[in-house]
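Sequence only, no structure available. Ideas?
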Amino acid sequence: MPRGTPREDIAWGVVDSIAQKVKAQAGKLRLGSGPLCLTGGLCGFPFVLERLERAFGREVRTDPRARFAG
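Reply:
I predicted one. Tokens follow.
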């Protein structure tokens, strides 16, 4: 990224990259067509859910307690 890039843009780039890598790995599984569920430490961050929904093209659900699973 060019020098002087806002931190927010860098953070979005990192999260978007993670979402794309998750999608690539999940492509090896049979996920069906319904909503996806996210567990683990990142499920409490709305922007992670947003980027995953964008990457997969469908709803990603979570629960406040889901961060303790995974």
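The mean pLDDT is 90.
Hope that gets you unstuck.
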